[in-house]
Amino acid sequence: MTEDDRLDPPSLEIAGPRATIRLHRSRHRNRIEPGDIIRLMQHFDTVDANPEVRVLVLAASGPAFSAGFHLGGFAEDREEAARAPGFDALVDRFEAVRVPSICRLQGGVYGGSTDLALTADFRVGVTTMEMFMPAARLGVHYYPGGLRRYVSRLGMNTAKRLFLTAEKLGAEELLRIGYLTHLVPPAELDAAVDRLAATLCAMAPLAVQGMKRALNEIGHGALDEAGCEARAKICKESADIQEGLAAFREKRAPVFRGV
């Protein structure tokens, strides 16, 4: 890793209920170095510890979203690589972030970043983007969590198509197979992300965060029913449900406080 790369770690900005993490290594297609994994894990912890945050946006600078994990990073900085968790741990941690997450995909998504984006709850992409998973072309056997996630979220046939053929897909096809949740022209990307983030921030946080966790568990075939029922009970006894019902009766927008 060059000295310039060390000066471009992922940043975190929190503005009211919205947190934004941004990748900054655009000259290398925002590849993720071992040190970035450490920093991103810290950012996720910061978001989870802040009860005011209700949505997390993962974004990137430059024309590409990310080229994924830099396999050469282990050889270039062995000390940092030894301290960093694995890329699979990073992706699982992003999936487990307490609040709903949005990936802002302004360009190409390649390699491990295809799984990183897939863990987000929403993926807003542009009509000029593309995606491919080159594992088979490189001789890489992908980690179990990513394989399971592809199958659970995109289906077995699509997972085999993407992993076994390294086929490059364009934006319209990514929307059709369900990889993208929203597709917009490049000029409308930020407005679309802002609208979705505002919608999520306006929802009841206890219910949204509890259901996100349950849905992810269901997607992995591992629903904690007792935990789900306990979270549902908390919502049933919360001030938020009273506010939601009152707002519905009074035909106004609810103001949820997460209690």
TrEMBL record:
Pfam families named in the record: ECH_1
Top-level division of the source organism's lineage: Bacteria
Entries under CDD domains matching the protein: crotonase-like
Gene Ontology molecular function: any one: catalytic activity
PANTHER family linked to this entry: EG:BACN32G11.4 PROTEIN, ENOYL-COA HYDRATASE
Protein name: Enoyl-CoA hydratase/carnithine racemase
